[in-house]
Amino acid sequence: MNRADPKETCCHNDVMTPSLQAVAGLLADARSLSEVAREEASSFRSNYGHDIPLKHLSDRVAMYVHAYTLYSAVRPFGCSFILGSYDKDDGPQLYMVDPSGISHGYWGCSIGKAKQAAKTEIEKLQMKEMTCREVVKEVAKIIYIVHDEVKDKAFELELSWVGEVTNGRHELVPKDVREEAEKYAKDSLEEEDDSDEDNM
Amino acid sequence: MEKRCTDSQVKGVSTGTTILAATFDGGVVIGSDSRASIGGEYVSSKTINKVIQVHDRIFSCMAGSLADAQAVTKAAKFHLSFHSVQMETPPLVIAAASVLKELCYKNKDELQAGFITAGWDRKNGAQVYVVSLGGMLIRQPVTIGGSGSTYIYGYVDAKYKPNMSKEECLQFATNALALAMGRDNVSGGVAHLVVVTESGVEHVVVPGDKLPKFHDE
Is B4 within the bounds of a domain? Predict the structure, then answer.
Protein backbone atom coordinates (compact mmCIF):
# COMPACT_ATOMS: atom_id res chain seq x y z
CA MET A 1 0.00 0.00 0.00
CA ASN A 2 1.22 3.51 -0.49
CA ARG A 3 -0.11 6.95 -0.38
CA ALA A 4 0.95 10.15 -2.04
CA ASP A 5 1.21 13.18 0.15
CA PRO A 6 -1.33 15.92 -0.12
CA LYS A 7 0.25 19.05 -1.42
CA GLU A 8 1.02 22.27 0.44
CA THR A 9 1.64 21.30 4.02
CA CYS A 10 2.69 17.71 4.09
CA CYS A 11 5.31 15.48 5.58
CA HIS A 12 5.76 11.83 6.17
CA ASN A 13 7.40 10.32 9.16
CA ASP A 14 8.32 7.03 10.65
CA VAL A 15 6.45 6.16 13.79
CA MET A 16 8.09 2.84 14.31
CA THR A 17 9.61 0.81 11.54
CA PRO A 18 6.49 -1.00 10.45
CA SER A 19 4.25 2.00 9.95
CA LEU A 20 4.15 5.26 8.14
CA GLN A 21 2.09 8.37 8.53
CA ALA A 22 1.08 11.27 6.38
CA VAL A 23 -0.37 14.51 7.68
CA ALA A 24 -2.13 17.53 6.31
CA GLY A 25 -2.83 20.80 8.08
CA LEU A 26 -0.87 22.83 10.59
CA LEU A 27 2.60 21.38 10.48
CA ALA A 28 3.40 22.16 14.09
CA ASP A 29 0.31 20.30 15.29
CA ALA A 30 1.21 17.44 13.01
CA ARG A 31 4.72 17.16 14.39
CA SER A 32 3.47 17.17 17.96
CA LEU A 33 0.90 14.47 17.16
CA SER A 34 3.59 12.50 15.40
CA GLU A 35 5.61 12.50 18.57
CA VAL A 36 2.55 11.31 20.51
CA ALA A 37 2.10 8.43 18.11
CA ARG A 38 5.78 7.50 18.47
CA GLU A 39 5.55 7.50 22.25
CA GLU A 40 2.40 5.38 22.23
CA ALA A 41 3.99 2.86 19.91
CA SER A 42 7.18 2.84 21.92
CA SER A 43 5.51 2.39 25.30
CA PHE A 44 3.30 -0.38 23.91
CA ARG A 45 6.36 -2.17 22.61
CA SER A 46 8.07 -1.77 25.94
CA ASN A 47 5.10 -3.02 27.95
CA TYR A 48 3.85 -5.85 25.77
CA GLY A 49 6.89 -7.09 23.91
CA HIS A 50 5.44 -6.84 20.40
CA ASP A 51 4.75 -4.08 17.89
CA ILE A 52 1.51 -2.19 18.35
CA PRO A 53 -1.26 -3.26 15.97
CA LEU A 54 -2.15 -0.33 13.73
CA LYS A 55 -5.81 -0.23 14.70
CA HIS A 56 -4.85 0.16 18.33
CA LEU A 57 -2.30 2.89 17.59
CA SER A 58 -4.89 4.70 15.53
CA ASP A 59 -7.41 4.39 18.39
CA ARG A 60 -4.92 5.81 20.84
CA VAL A 61 -3.99 8.77 18.63
CA ALA A 62 -7.68 9.39 17.96
CA MET A 63 -8.48 9.40 21.69
CA TYR A 64 -5.69 11.90 22.24
CA VAL A 65 -6.96 14.18 19.45
CA HIS A 66 -10.52 13.84 20.77
CA ALA A 67 -9.46 14.95 24.24
CA TYR A 68 -8.46 18.32 22.81
CA THR A 69 -12.03 18.85 21.62
CA LEU A 70 -13.44 18.56 25.13
CA TYR A 71 -11.97 21.54 26.95
CA SER A 72 -12.12 25.25 26.28
CA ALA A 73 -8.58 25.74 27.55
CA VAL A 74 -7.13 24.07 24.48
CA ARG A 75 -7.90 24.16 20.78
CA PRO A 76 -8.43 21.09 18.61
CA PHE A 77 -5.54 19.79 16.54
CA GLY A 78 -5.45 21.48 13.16
CA CYS A 79 -4.38 18.48 11.17
CA SER A 80 -5.51 15.12 9.86
CA PHE A 81 -3.45 12.02 10.12
CA ILE A 82 -3.11 8.95 7.94
CA LEU A 83 -1.43 5.84 9.34
CA GLY A 84 -0.41 2.85 7.27
CA SER A 85 1.37 -0.40 7.91
CA TYR A 86 2.05 -3.84 6.53
CA ASP A 87 2.21 -7.03 8.58
CA LYS A 88 2.56 -10.51 7.21
CA ASP A 89 -0.27 -11.76 9.43
CA ASP A 90 -2.69 -8.85 9.24
CA GLY A 91 -1.77 -7.66 5.74
CA PRO A 92 -1.83 -4.01 4.70
CA GLN A 93 -3.75 -1.58 6.93
CA LEU A 94 -4.74 2.04 6.49
CA TYR A 95 -6.27 4.28 9.15
CA MET A 96 -7.11 7.94 9.24
CA VAL A 97 -7.61 10.27 12.21
CA ASP A 98 -9.29 13.64 11.74
CA PRO A 99 -9.39 16.69 14.08
CA SER A 100 -12.65 15.58 15.67
CA GLY A 101 -10.95 12.45 16.94
CA ILE A 102 -12.68 9.97 14.67
CA SER A 103 -10.61 7.05 13.46
CA HIS A 104 -11.60 4.70 10.66
CA GLY A 105 -9.93 2.04 8.59
CA TYR A 106 -9.87 2.57 4.84
CA TRP A 107 -8.98 0.99 1.56
CA GLY A 108 -8.23 4.47 0.28
CA CYS A 109 -8.52 7.92 1.81
CA SER A 110 -7.45 11.50 1.24
CA ILE A 111 -6.78 14.52 3.41
CA GLY A 112 -5.88 18.13 2.71
CA LYS A 113 -7.19 20.96 0.63
CA ALA A 114 -8.44 18.92 -2.34
CA LYS A 115 -9.54 15.88 -0.40
CA GLN A 116 -13.06 15.84 -1.87
CA ALA A 117 -11.79 15.81 -5.44
CA ALA A 118 -9.19 13.18 -4.56
CA LYS A 119 -11.85 11.09 -2.85
CA THR A 120 -13.90 11.02 -6.04
CA GLU A 121 -10.90 9.83 -7.99
CA ILE A 122 -10.03 7.19 -5.40
CA GLU A 123 -13.55 5.78 -5.57
CA LYS A 124 -12.96 4.95 -9.21
CA LEU A 125 -10.11 2.61 -8.30
CA GLN A 126 -10.51 -1.07 -7.49
CA MET A 127 -7.79 -1.32 -4.91
CA LYS A 128 -8.45 -4.93 -3.97
CA GLU A 129 -7.46 -6.06 -7.44
CA MET A 130 -4.40 -3.86 -7.84
CA THR A 131 -0.80 -4.43 -6.94
CA CYS A 132 1.30 -1.94 -5.00
CA ARG A 133 3.13 -0.72 -8.10
CA GLU A 134 -0.12 -0.10 -9.99
CA VAL A 135 -1.52 1.87 -7.08
CA VAL A 136 1.62 4.06 -6.93
CA LYS A 137 0.96 5.22 -10.49
CA GLU A 138 -2.73 5.84 -9.88
CA VAL A 139 -2.03 7.81 -6.73
CA ALA A 140 0.53 10.02 -8.49
CA LYS A 141 -2.04 10.64 -11.20
CA ILE A 142 -4.63 11.70 -8.63
CA ILE A 143 -2.26 14.20 -7.08
CA TYR A 144 -1.62 15.76 -10.47
CA ILE A 145 -5.33 15.77 -11.33
CA VAL A 146 -6.43 17.61 -8.19
CA HIS A 147 -3.69 20.19 -8.41
CA ASP A 148 -5.24 23.45 -9.52
CA GLU A 149 -2.82 25.17 -11.91
CA VAL A 150 -4.39 28.55 -11.38
CA LYS A 151 -4.95 28.73 -7.65
CA ASP A 152 -2.24 26.49 -6.21
CA LYS A 153 1.48 27.01 -6.06
CA ALA A 154 3.88 24.57 -7.69
CA PHE A 155 4.25 21.33 -5.81
CA GLU A 156 6.68 18.52 -5.39
CA LEU A 157 5.38 14.98 -5.27
CA GLU A 158 6.63 12.84 -2.39
CA LEU A 159 5.90 9.15 -2.55
CA SER A 160 6.58 6.52 0.05
CA TRP A 161 5.28 3.07 0.61
CA VAL A 162 5.16 0.16 3.01
CA GLY A 163 4.21 -3.38 2.05
CA GLU A 164 5.34 -6.79 1.02
CA VAL A 165 7.48 -5.09 -1.61
CA THR A 166 9.50 -3.43 1.15
CA ASN A 167 9.31 -6.35 3.61
CA GLY A 168 7.14 -4.31 5.91
CA ARG A 169 9.54 -1.37 6.17
CA HIS A 170 8.53 2.19 5.43
CA GLU A 171 10.65 3.47 2.55
CA LEU A 172 10.67 6.21 -0.02
CA VAL A 173 9.53 4.87 -3.35
CA PRO A 174 12.64 4.06 -5.43
CA LYS A 175 13.63 6.58 -8.09
CA ASP A 176 12.71 4.42 -11.08
CA VAL A 177 9.24 3.61 -9.76
CA ARG A 178 8.64 7.22 -8.89
CA GLU A 179 9.71 8.50 -12.27
CA GLU A 180 7.50 5.93 -13.94
CA ALA A 181 4.58 7.05 -11.79
CA GLU A 182 5.16 10.72 -12.52
CA LYS A 183 5.43 10.07 -16.22
CA TYR A 184 2.20 8.07 -16.14
CA ALA A 185 0.51 10.89 -14.24
CA LYS A 186 1.66 13.61 -16.63
CA ASP A 187 0.81 11.54 -19.71
CA SER A 188 -2.71 10.85 -18.43
CA LEU A 189 -3.26 14.55 -17.85
CA GLU A 190 -2.15 15.42 -21.36
CA GLU A 191 -4.48 12.81 -22.81
CA GLU A 192 -7.40 14.35 -21.00
CA ASP A 193 -6.42 17.80 -22.21
CA ASP A 194 -6.20 16.51 -25.78
CA SER A 195 -9.62 14.83 -25.56
CA ASP A 196 -11.09 18.09 -24.24
CA GLU A 197 -9.75 19.95 -27.27
CA ASP A 198 -11.24 17.39 -29.67
CA ASN A 199 -14.67 17.83 -28.13
CA MET A 200 -14.56 21.51 -28.85
CA MET B 1 22.23 -28.32 67.17
CA GLU B 2 22.17 -25.26 64.96
CA LYS B 3 18.66 -24.09 64.18
CA ARG B 4 18.20 -23.93 60.45
CA CYS B 5 17.22 -20.54 59.21
CA THR B 6 13.46 -20.42 58.81
CA ASP B 7 13.57 -17.22 56.87
CA SER B 8 12.36 -18.11 53.41
CA GLN B 9 13.14 -14.64 52.05
CA VAL B 10 16.85 -15.33 51.49
CA LYS B 11 17.70 -13.40 48.35
CA GLY B 12 18.68 -15.35 45.29
CA VAL B 13 17.39 -18.69 46.52
CA SER B 14 14.30 -20.13 44.82
CA THR B 15 12.15 -21.73 47.44
CA GLY B 16 10.44 -25.08 47.40
CA THR B 17 8.90 -25.74 44.06
CA THR B 18 9.19 -27.63 40.82
CA ILE B 19 7.63 -26.02 37.77
CA LEU B 20 7.98 -26.75 34.09
CA ALA B 21 6.52 -26.03 30.69
CA ALA B 22 7.11 -27.77 27.37
CA THR B 23 5.84 -27.17 23.85
CA PHE B 24 4.58 -30.01 21.70
CA ASP B 25 3.06 -30.17 18.26
CA GLY B 26 0.03 -27.88 18.50
CA GLY B 27 0.18 -26.85 22.15
CA VAL B 28 1.99 -26.60 25.43
CA VAL B 29 2.02 -28.61 28.68
CA ILE B 30 2.51 -26.71 31.93
CA GLY B 31 3.11 -28.48 35.21
CA SER B 32 3.94 -27.93 38.85
CA ASP B 33 4.06 -29.68 42.19
CA SER B 34 1.74 -28.62 45.00
CA ARG B 35 3.87 -28.19 48.11
CA ALA B 36 4.35 -24.91 49.97
CA SER B 37 6.96 -24.99 52.73
CA ILE B 38 8.47 -22.70 55.31
CA GLY B 39 12.24 -22.84 55.47
CA GLY B 40 12.38 -26.46 54.43
CA GLU B 41 11.14 -27.59 57.84
CA TYR B 42 7.39 -27.44 57.67
CA VAL B 43 4.93 -28.11 54.87
CA SER B 44 2.43 -25.28 55.11
CA SER B 45 0.25 -26.61 52.28
CA LYS B 46 0.16 -29.97 50.51
CA THR B 47 -2.21 -28.95 47.76
CA ILE B 48 -1.41 -25.43 46.72
CA ASN B 49 -2.01 -24.48 43.08
CA LYS B 50 0.99 -22.85 41.49
CA VAL B 51 -0.36 -22.78 37.95
CA ILE B 52 -2.48 -19.65 37.57
CA GLN B 53 -4.63 -18.89 34.55
CA VAL B 54 -3.88 -15.29 33.53
CA HIS B 55 -6.04 -15.47 30.41
CA ASP B 56 -8.12 -17.95 28.43
CA ARG B 57 -5.16 -19.64 26.79
CA ILE B 58 -2.27 -18.32 28.90
CA PHE B 59 -1.00 -19.78 32.17
CA SER B 60 1.70 -18.77 34.57
CA CYS B 61 3.60 -20.92 37.08
CA MET B 62 4.87 -19.27 40.23
CA ALA B 63 8.27 -19.76 41.80
CA GLY B 64 9.99 -18.02 44.68
CA SER B 65 8.12 -16.30 47.44
CA LEU B 66 4.49 -17.35 47.02
CA ALA B 67 3.18 -14.11 48.50
CA ASP B 68 5.09 -12.03 45.96
CA ALA B 69 4.15 -14.36 43.13
CA GLN B 70 0.46 -14.27 43.99
CA ALA B 71 0.47 -10.47 44.19
CA VAL B 72 2.22 -10.17 40.84
CA THR B 73 -0.03 -12.66 39.04
CA LYS B 74 -3.13 -10.95 40.39
CA ALA B 75 -1.92 -7.61 39.05
CA ALA B 76 -0.94 -9.19 35.74
CA LYS B 77 -4.30 -10.94 35.38
CA PHE B 78 -6.16 -7.67 35.77
CA HIS B 79 -3.83 -5.83 33.42
CA LEU B 80 -4.18 -8.52 30.76
CA SER B 81 -7.95 -8.66 30.89
CA PHE B 82 -8.07 -4.87 30.48
CA HIS B 83 -5.53 -5.05 27.65
CA SER B 84 -7.56 -7.76 25.94
CA VAL B 85 -10.73 -5.64 26.05
CA GLN B 86 -8.87 -2.63 24.61
CA MET B 87 -7.32 -4.64 21.79
CA GLU B 88 -10.59 -6.48 21.07
CA THR B 89 -8.58 -9.67 20.74
CA PRO B 90 -7.04 -12.22 23.13
CA PRO B 91 -3.58 -11.12 24.26
CA LEU B 92 -0.45 -12.65 22.79
CA VAL B 93 1.57 -14.91 25.09
CA ILE B 94 4.52 -12.52 24.68
CA ALA B 95 2.29 -9.71 25.95
CA ALA B 96 1.40 -11.69 29.08
CA ALA B 97 5.05 -12.55 29.68
CA SER B 98 6.06 -8.90 29.14
CA VAL B 99 3.48 -7.67 31.65
CA LEU B 100 4.93 -10.03 34.28
CA LYS B 101 8.45 -9.06 33.29
CA GLU B 102 7.75 -5.35 33.72
CA LEU B 103 6.37 -5.97 37.21
CA CYS B 104 9.35 -8.13 38.19
CA TYR B 105 11.95 -5.82 36.68
CA LYS B 106 10.55 -2.52 37.95
CA ASN B 107 10.17 -3.90 41.46
CA LYS B 108 13.20 -6.13 41.58
CA ASP B 109 14.42 -4.69 44.88
CA GLU B 110 11.25 -5.66 46.71
CA LEU B 111 10.13 -8.81 44.95
CA GLN B 112 11.37 -12.36 44.90
CA ALA B 113 9.26 -14.05 42.29
CA GLY B 114 9.98 -15.81 39.03
CA PHE B 115 7.54 -17.20 36.50
CA ILE B 116 7.13 -19.54 33.61
CA THR B 117 4.50 -18.15 31.28
CA ALA B 118 3.15 -20.47 28.64
CA GLY B 119 0.18 -20.64 26.35
CA TRP B 120 -1.20 -20.51 22.85
CA ASP B 121 -2.08 -17.55 20.65
CA ARG B 122 -3.25 -17.18 17.08
CA LYS B 123 -0.18 -15.36 15.83
CA ASN B 124 2.71 -17.50 17.08
CA GLY B 125 1.08 -20.71 18.26
CA ALA B 126 2.39 -22.48 21.35
CA GLN B 127 5.08 -20.63 23.27
CA VAL B 128 6.94 -20.85 26.58
CA TYR B 129 8.60 -17.82 28.21
CA VAL B 130 10.73 -17.61 31.33
CA VAL B 131 10.62 -14.51 33.50
CA SER B 132 13.43 -14.83 36.01
CA LEU B 133 13.79 -13.23 39.45
CA GLY B 134 15.41 -9.99 38.24
CA GLY B 135 13.10 -9.55 35.27
CA MET B 136 14.84 -11.30 32.39
CA LEU B 137 12.47 -12.46 29.67
CA ILE B 138 13.49 -15.25 27.35
CA ARG B 139 11.65 -17.69 25.11
CA GLN B 140 12.45 -21.40 25.18
CA PRO B 141 10.82 -24.56 23.80
CA VAL B 142 11.04 -26.25 27.20
CA THR B 143 11.93 -24.87 30.57
CA ILE B 144 12.04 -25.90 34.22
CA GLY B 145 12.20 -23.81 37.38
CA GLY B 146 12.17 -23.85 41.14
CA SER B 147 14.39 -25.68 43.60
CA GLY B 148 13.32 -29.10 42.36
CA SER B 149 14.38 -28.32 38.83
CA THR B 150 18.07 -28.82 39.66
CA TYR B 151 17.45 -32.58 39.91
CA ILE B 152 15.88 -32.95 36.49
CA TYR B 153 18.06 -30.92 34.14
CA GLY B 154 19.67 -34.11 32.91
CA TYR B 155 16.32 -35.81 32.38
CA VAL B 156 14.88 -32.86 30.48
CA ASP B 157 17.97 -32.42 28.31
CA ALA B 158 18.00 -36.10 27.42
CA LYS B 159 14.29 -36.79 27.01
CA TYR B 160 12.74 -33.65 25.53
CA LYS B 161 12.16 -33.70 21.79
CA PRO B 162 10.50 -30.90 19.83
CA ASN B 163 7.13 -31.63 18.15
CA MET B 164 6.13 -34.54 20.37
CA SER B 165 2.52 -35.64 20.45
CA LYS B 166 0.28 -34.46 23.28
CA GLU B 167 0.40 -37.82 25.05
CA GLU B 168 4.18 -38.10 24.79
CA CYS B 169 4.57 -34.59 26.16
CA LEU B 170 2.20 -35.25 29.04
CA GLN B 171 4.13 -38.38 29.95
CA PHE B 172 7.41 -36.49 29.72
CA ALA B 173 6.11 -33.75 32.02
CA THR B 174 4.65 -36.20 34.53
CA ASN B 175 7.91 -38.15 34.68
CA ALA B 176 9.93 -34.98 35.12
CA LEU B 177 7.76 -33.76 37.97
CA ALA B 178 7.79 -37.16 39.64
CA LEU B 179 11.58 -37.36 39.50
CA ALA B 180 11.98 -33.87 40.91
CA MET B 181 9.43 -34.42 43.65
CA GLY B 182 11.17 -37.67 44.51
CA ARG B 183 14.50 -36.02 45.23
CA ASP B 184 13.64 -32.47 46.34
CA ASN B 185 12.38 -32.32 49.92
CA VAL B 186 10.54 -29.03 49.38
CA SER B 187 8.64 -30.25 46.32
CA GLY B 188 5.84 -32.76 46.59
CA GLY B 189 2.15 -33.38 46.88
CA VAL B 190 0.23 -33.80 43.64
CA ALA B 191 1.32 -33.02 40.10
CA HIS B 192 -0.80 -30.29 38.50
CA LEU B 193 -0.67 -30.38 34.72
CA VAL B 194 -2.40 -28.15 32.21
CA VAL B 195 -2.54 -28.77 28.46
CA VAL B 196 -3.23 -25.67 26.32
CA THR B 197 -4.07 -25.96 22.64
CA GLU B 198 -6.00 -23.92 20.11
CA SER B 199 -9.17 -25.83 20.95
CA GLY B 200 -9.03 -25.40 24.69
CA VAL B 201 -7.54 -26.04 28.08
CA GLU B 202 -7.35 -29.42 29.84
CA HIS B 203 -6.46 -29.86 33.51
CA VAL B 204 -4.83 -33.08 34.66
CA VAL B 205 -4.12 -33.78 38.30
CA VAL B 206 -1.95 -36.77 39.21
CA PRO B 207 -2.17 -37.64 42.93
CA GLY B 208 1.06 -38.51 44.72
CA ASP B 209 0.40 -42.23 44.82
CA LYS B 210 -0.40 -42.39 41.09
CA LEU B 211 2.85 -40.75 39.99
CA PRO B 212 5.25 -42.92 37.98
CA LYS B 213 7.60 -44.94 40.14
CA PHE B 214 11.22 -45.52 39.30
CA HIS B 215 13.65 -48.31 40.03
CA ASP B 216 14.34 -47.44 43.65
CA GLU B 217 10.75 -46.92 44.80
Answer: no
User: Does residue B6 sit within a domain?
Assistant: no
Q: What does the alpha-carbon distance between residue B126 and residue B29 come to, in Å, rounded to a whole number?
A: 10
Give the 3-state secondary structure of A37-90: HHHHHHHHHHHHCCCCCHHHHHHHHHHHHHHCCCCCCCCCCCEEEEEEEEECCC
Q: Per-residue pLDDT tens for A124-176?
A: 998 888 888 899 999 999 999 888 888 888 888 888 888 888 888 888 889 99
Task: State the amino acid at position B125 in one-letter form.
Answer: G
Residue spans in chain A of domains classed CATH 3.60.20.10? 13-108
CATH class of A13-108: alpha beta
Looking at residue B54, what DSSP letter applies?
Answer: E
* CATH code of the domain covering residue B142: 3.60.20.10
Give ∠ CA A52-A57-A58 in degrees, rounded to 5.
150
Is residue B211 included in any domain, yes or no?
no
CA B46 to chain centre: 17
Three-class secondary structure of residue B137 per DSSP: strand
Domain count, chain B: 1
ipTM score above 0.85: no
Helices (H), B43-195: 66-87, 93-106, 153-159, 166-183
Structural domain including B165 reads 17-36+46-206
Could you report the per-residue pLDDT of B146-194, keeping only the tens digit for each? Answer: 889 999 999 999 999 999 999 999 999 999 999 999 999 889 899 999 9
> Taking CB atoms and an 8 Å cutoff, what residues of chain B touch A50?
92, 94-95, 98
* Residue from B17, B73, B117, B174 carrying the catalytic annotation: B17
A49 neighbourhood in chain B, CB within 8 Å: 92, 94-95, 97-98, 101, 137
